[in-house]
Target: RNA 2',3'-cyclic phosphodiesterase
Amino acid sequence: MQMGLGFDDAQDGRMHRLFFALWPDDALRARIAETAASVVADHAPGGRPLKPARYHVTMQFLGDFRPLPPSLLDDARAAADAVRSPAFDLSLDQVGSFRGANVWWLGSQQAPDALRALYDALGRSLLQHRVPVKASTSFAPHLTVQRDVRRHIAPIPVPPLAWAVREFVLIDSDPGRGAPYEVVGRWPLG
Model:
């Protein structure tokens, strides 16, 4: 499924940060915000909370582009069109932090195999369609809730938040503007 940016939008000279992600619905975003506020109140990490409209789990990061290469969106969409992966349920049931990035996150104590399978399938398809990906040394699925933290914690359990993952999306953001993310494509799972 394709939507969003056209050629004129892509050539506007602004910064485009592109990535594929899992995108929670509004009801889950509200529950994540409540859990995040509770954890922050209990553990005082400092820093700044992420706005609920920015909650996501990054699946594949394509990079920052200025200007956006004309064929990149078409190639990324073609790669996503080729992915076949089942829908799955994800439980956000722990909070932790990354020292290097100074963020607190929500994640899963036991991520489903289908999550890793989707990550791998999308990565292979992007490679086959010659879409550049900023490779990570490991896949650590997480949803950032707090940035610029001054206190780090080892992963601890939180009351589980059930997430029925039924699609993945392609996001375009302008990191310099702080504007909300723009969903420029959606692909159903299952």
